């Protein structure tokens, strides 16, 4: 379970274009400046086997059925927890993960319409019951997220290419998850300036880190 390991596990979530990856990278730099051992990983991804799975999941040229997609995410997560996340937490490190279990419930549950109850059982198996101590949810209207991605002029991946209605369901899923677990989630307005976002997140992370040192 999440509290039997001495480290601090923080995840970043949000719809496409919400800025979660940028905020995660900023937090990685900020925490390393404090001298804290901080480990970064991502989902799908992390260890080599999970990165190979990522290349399948995000490939816009592949037609991946929803259930196959779901199982690949769980396979990637199981290796990431086993090879990267849990060992770092056992060393009392701070772990920052760009997406984790909540993304699966939001994207494959609310977005794809797959059954949530079955997903919960499979996720418990993939993670060994591991849950984040803090989840940063970058909340943004998906339409604004698409506008930002279009400005970047980069090629969209398979998930990003889904239509706007899909991404709106994903946002609804995220907000539902945050409402159900308010102590774990910090919901950040994606329309705030990056400076304001980073200040809110860093303050909360340092607070949670101090609490873990006392335990």
Task: Summarize the structure in words.
This protein has about 220 residues and is α/β, with parallel strands linked by helices. It has one domain (about 1-215): Rossmann fold, CATH 3.40.50. It is about 55% helix and about 15% strand. The chain has helices at about 20-35, 50-55, 65-90, 100-110, 115-125, 140-150, 165-180, 195-215, and strands spanning about 10-15, 40, 95-100, 135-140, 185-190. Strands 2-3-1-4-5 form a 5-stranded parallel sheet, sandwiched between helices. The chain is globular and about 45 Å long. The two termini are about 15 Å apart.
- Rg calc: 16 Å
Q: What is the helix/strand order?
A: EHEHHEHHEHHEH
Q: Report the sheet with the most strands, covering strand number, pairing sense and barrel closure.
A: 5 strands, parallel
Overall geometry comes to globular
Structural class: alpha/beta
Number of DSSP helices? 8
Q: Round the mean pLDDT to the nearest integer and report it.
A: 95
Helix content: 55-70%
* Unreliable stretches covering 5 or more consecutive residues: none
Distance between the termini: 15 Å
Task: Give me the CATH fold name.
Answer: Rossmann fold
Main sheet: which strands, in order across?
Answer: 2-3-1-4-5
**How large a portion of the residues is in β-strands, by DSSP E?**
5-15%
CATH homologous superfamily title: P-loop containing nucleotide triphosphate hydrolases
